[in-house]
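Notes, p. 3: input format for complexes.
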Amino acid sequence: MNIFVCISHVPDSTTKVRVGPSGKEIDEEGVTFILNPYDEYAVEAALQMKEKQGGEVTAVCVGNDAVKETIRKALAMGVDKGLLIKAERSRDSFGIAHAIADTLRDRSPDVIFCGKQSIDYDSSQVAGMLGELLGFPSVSAIVGLEVDGDGNITLERDIEGGQEISKTKLPAVLSTDKGLNEPRYPKLQGIMAAKRKPIEETEAAPYENRVQVMEMRLPPAKDAGKIVGEGVDAVPELVKLLHEEAKVI
Amino acid sequence: MKAIVFVEQRDGNIKKSSCEAIHAAASRFGSCTAVVIGPDLGDAYAGLGAYGASKVIAVTGDGLENYSVTAYAKAFSGVVQELGADVVLFSATAMAKDLAPRVAIRLDAALASDCTELTVQGDEVIATRPVYAGKAFITVTLATPVKIFSLRPNVFTIGETSDAQAEVEKRAPDLSDDDFVVRVVETKMASGRKDVVEADVIVSGGRGMGAPENWRLIEELADVLDAATGASRAVVDAGWRPHAEQVGQTGKTVAPSLYIACGISGAIQHLAGMSSSKCIVAINKDPEAPIFKVADYGIIGDVMEVLPALTNEIKSVVGK
Ligand SMILES: Cc1cc2nc3c(=O)[nH]c(=O)nc-3n(C[C@H](O)[C@H](O)[C@@H](O)COP(=O)(O)OP(=O)(O)OC[C@H]3O[C@@H](n4cnc5c(N)ncnc54)[C@H](O)[C@@H]3O)c2cc1C
Ligand SMILES: Cc1cc2nc3c(=O)[nH]c(=O)nc-3n(C[C@H](O)[C@H](O)[C@H](O)COP(=O)(O)OP(=O)(O)OC[C@H]3O[C@@H](n4cnc5c(N)ncnc54)[C@H](O)[C@@H]3O)c2cc1C
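Output follows (569 residues plus flavin-adenine dinucleotide):
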């Protein structure tokens, strides 16, 4: 199996966001970057598929040299090799999907895993776009995955108020949600081995963003609310406020 | 500008958030055409006129009763091209997150996901969307002739409904087996309670609830409020509650009218999922808990005592 996993290099989830001098993007000064949490489920799914079916796993990232540290994190989890598609970091989802599709088209992927969403721009677009660009089926936000020996796959995904089971076949693009698996932690041995694993580099074709950011701003600061009181005694007052002031009950 | 709204139905039920999208389109672009794929629902379609759809295109055919991302993308894009629309709206549901990116490629259109504001200025459409889990917002414009926006559910209103009836037209697209390469074979709906993303009121519990059996206190309050039940990641990871209930950065993003956080500390990743709720109530025994910084109303106290009292008090006020 020729397995690819697309990974995104994102600010840690505890990052305090500050707007940078352009007024259009965050100030990355002092920000710690991590492997996108949803992509950990994608890496785990890729590794489990390799363990069952054999083959090779390649982690793909579109970005500049800075993203190599994130590729190394996937390598440390057990991914065999990295593929850095060099491009400016400010590409929109379509620009990223396009660069990945152009690069993977001739490498006969059997399956491409993505995360459900990248926790920076939260767009949930790359996987579906990649599927359409490559002419592959795609299923997003999966929480269950079964593959048989003939490449038929059964997938489960959460929908509002329930789950949906779908069937498709390889080659396919699948995006992963929390709940699919428990991502493994890199072991020391894995971290050492990752340093020696190859990261191939290619160049993405030039691209102009279709989703154009005019401005980035922080949400208006919220006034600290009212502490109604302590314990059971405060309950009648709270209910009165919810009923008469907030009018939500 | 000519606007089309993708209307989602499951098992013959039209999603409320699709009606929000119809109203958003009609109120900004003057009128809109709603496109529904699935079984023929007859009168229900004409009823979409109430939210502002002037026309409904009902796309039906063998296999289209159940969702298939590939077939729906082809059928829907075909209608958009036939009508020559410039703006396409979705409600950002689980289906739209799966479907809209493929439609965007087919229409060679840019897509802005999960928008919380949409304004028209001359011939520009400007969207606002949260990034970094709501820690910042960006305003964007789309540089393609056809522009696609998905709207965050529960943020846009359905407006004042009228008794207008929409004109209904049918389409039966030409689809082959290959177009159904992905297909839904089964849908398992949980019975009873609403889903967190669709609920108007959410009662949510965290580690401060002490043990999974104490969730009956959450459920009793949820029952009187006709609410969904939510959870923090700590209790989902501990196996106390199902994944589908998790609210936050790696869970669901919700925007109900009322969010009641019980024994939840208010970690930044939890706040990411619920801070756009219209009214937030926190019950926590620690006066320093960060949840009080975003709460509109707070009670400092033990959930085991406060919750039953709250349920009783609300019962007497709402008369249930
Ligand atoms: C400085 C800066 C400027 C930016 N400017 C813009 C802008 O002008 N317009 C705009 O729309 N966006 C802009 N971005 C956002 C950029 O598109 C995101 O940072 C990128 O991570 C994609 O996020 P998404 O939400 O679109 O991805 P999603 O569609 O949510 O990602 C889903 C999945 O796709 C895969 N994936 C995502 N990104 C990559 C990647 N780079 N390489 C490989 N796989 C990936 C992962 O598996 C991920 O889980 C900017 C970002 C930065 C840092
Ligand atoms: C990448 C990443 C993603 C994450 N995503 C999410 C996410 O999507 N959603 C999420 O929720 N978290 C998420 N987290 C986890 C988050 O950081 C917190 O660990 C988690 O939200 C804590 O849950 P909690 O508030 O239930 O527990 P705690 O932080 O342990 O808080 C329990 C609270 O209950 C109070 N308490 C205790 N006993 C009582 C009592 N008897 N009565 C009243 N109050 C009481 C305590 O004072 C305390 O404030 C994520 C973390 C990471 C690193």
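The longest helix of chain A spans residues 37-53.
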